[in-house]
Amino acid sequence: MNDTSEPAAKGIDHFIGNEGEFPVLGHGDFFNHAGVCPLPNAGADALRRYARQAETVAYVDTGWHRDIASLRASAAAMMNASKEEVAFVKNTSEGISIVATGVDWNAGDRVVTTAVEYPANVYPWMELARSRGVELVMVPEETAGDGSRHVPLEKILAAADHPRTRMITLSHVEYASGQRHDLAAVGAFCRDRNILFCVDAIQSLGVLPVDVKAMHVDYLSADGHKWLLGPEGAGVFYCRKELLERTRPATLGWMNVVDALNYGNYDYTLRPDAGRFECGSYNVPGLLALKASVELLAGLGVGAVSRRIKALTDRLVEGLGGKGYSIVSPRSGDQWSGIVSFVADDPAKHVGISKTLRAEHRTEIALREGRLRASPHLYNTEGQIDRLIHHLPGGGRSEI
Ligand SMILES: Cc1ncc(COP(=O)(O)O)c(C=O)c1O
Q1: Residue-level pLDDT at 141
Q2: What are the Cα distances from residue 255, in Å, to 78, 260, 393?
Q3: What pLDDT was estimated at residue 397?
Q4: Sheet holding 86-89, edge to edge
Q5: What percent helix, strand, coil does the chain show, rounded to 5?
Q6: CB-based contacts of 250: which residues, under 8 Å, 6+ apart?
Q7: Which residues of the chain carry a pLDDT beneath 50?
Q8: How far is the CA of 185 from the centre of ligand 1 (A)?
Q9: Which residue intervals of 194-283 are DSSP H helices?
Q10: Which of 100, 109, 120, 121 shows the shortest CA–CA distance to 249?
Q11: pLDDT at 83
């Protein structure tokens, strides 16, 4: 390579086990990306740069606005949306609340979801039921033939097959089981029947394929602090172009309007693009850090990232089975995700297990809804997975 050539793009191998890129690797074995991720060096660096700049300059003297515009484009590309369809939000909840408050509901409209959603995708609809007489239908989780837990697609569609159904709202990946829903199938069902489709993508965006066009998604919300490897409080919200005009913003301020920089003219004309959902100043440092991690992931490509996460979670599932744990997460077909939930014979052991892992082995997993949950990211190593299996006590079930 001569001096003028571009440095080679970094492939996934560069990041695996690389403490310089993922400093958390020097602090223990972290497997809770479905909770709150540690920042990669690229994101932390963006924050350090911001802090240095912010000490002495004002917004207009920086490239921050260009960086934020560039993040909007790369976040849009990540889900196959246009940048006009993407707004920045402070978290997933805010995006879902935009949908819940922004659609022209009628009393008696039905909203269908599962009974195992993260509360970010429950309370906005409960409020709608309380205030607008909307009926919330929650489809329960079941045990599948292989012992895993899932909400069957056909049960969701059966619940939605009703003339009053206005919306299906789903997590792409359920936080406690790790089930990945078939968004394309649900989306096609919705589009055929003129039902709106809203997706909480915080447990998938960046590491599993999301294509709002092919999957017929109308609204999507995802904060950046899990699989996108960003800091908390900086997320993205998608609204399909055709729905922008009739989706009212949930929060209003100086920025939702077409002529936002003309402060004194009070022209209350909402922007025609997704900027209409942004009410005021951005979380600039959060977005700059998110930009760094989105670019890292986009540079690798979702195909390579998802294959890596599949390989790590397959290894984990195999090891857990060998150790006498039951796997709660569906793993067949495209139902798998980066979340592996598992249980010992006696769930009363779970708290002790996770505490011991943390205190004695600097190993971080989570407890959710009576299950142990491990969620590795692309940079975790096979050695770390094997160490986790090694440190876990026997799960008490017959080994497979
Ligand atoms: C499915 C799901 N949605 C949303 C969130 C978090 O919501 P927010 O981004 O509003 O903090 C979580 C966090 O655990 C989650 O698992």
Answers
A1: 98
A2: 25, 5, 54
A3: 82
A4: 86-89, 235-239, 219-223, 196-200, 165-171, 110-114, 135-139
A5: 40, 15, 45
A6: 94, 97, 98, 101, 102, 277
A7: 1-4, 399-400
A8: 23
A9: none
A10: 100
A11: 98
Q: How far is the CA of 295 from the centre of ligand 1 (A)?
A: 22
CB atoms under 10 Å from CB of 39, counted, come to: 21
User: Strands, E, within the chain: which ranges?
Assistant: 29-30, 86-89, 110-114, 135-139, 142-143, 149-150, 165-171, 196-200, 219-223, 235-239, 326-327, 340-343, 363-364, 366-368, 371-374
Ligand 1 centroid to Cα of residue 76, in Å, is: 20
- b/e per residue, 153-191, with b = 16+ CB within 10 A? eeebbebbeeeebbbbbbbbbbbbbbbbbbbeebbebbe
Token pair of 91 as six digits: 């978290």
CA dist., res. 258 & res. 242, Å (int): 18
**pLDDT tens figures, 233-259:** 999 999 999 999 999 999 999 999 999
Side-chain-side CA neighbours of 343 within 13 Å: the count stands at 15
Quote the pLDDT of residue 104.
96
Dihedral through CA 53, CA 55, CA 61, CA 66, nearest 10?
Answer: 50
Q: What is the pLDDT of residue 6?
A: 55
Whole-number pLDDT of residue 373: 98
Residue 15 to residue 18: CA distance in whole angstroms: 5
For ligand 1, pick from 33, 89, 118, 219 the residue to mutate: most ligand atoms within 8 Å of CB: 118
Residue 339 CA to ligand 1 center (angstroms) comes to 14
3-state secondary structure of 315: helix
Residue 62: the pLDDT is 79
Listing DSSP states for 22-56 in one string gives: -GGGGT-EE-BTTT-PPPPHHHHHHHHHHHHHHTT
pLDDT at 7: 55
Q: Indicate whether this model's pTM tops 0.70.
A: yes
Residues 6+ apart with CB under 8 A from 375: 31, 32, 33, 34, 35, 178, 338, 339, 340, 366
Instruction: Give, using CA atoms, the residue closest to atom 14 of ligand 1.
Output: 35
User: Which H or E run contains 309?
Assistant: helix 302-322
Q: Six-digit token pair at 265?
A: 């003219």
Question: DSSP secondary-structure letter at 99?
Answer: H
Give SS3 for 233. Answer: coil
pLDDT of residue 56: 87
Task: Report residue 354: phi and psi, to 5°.
Answer: -70, -35
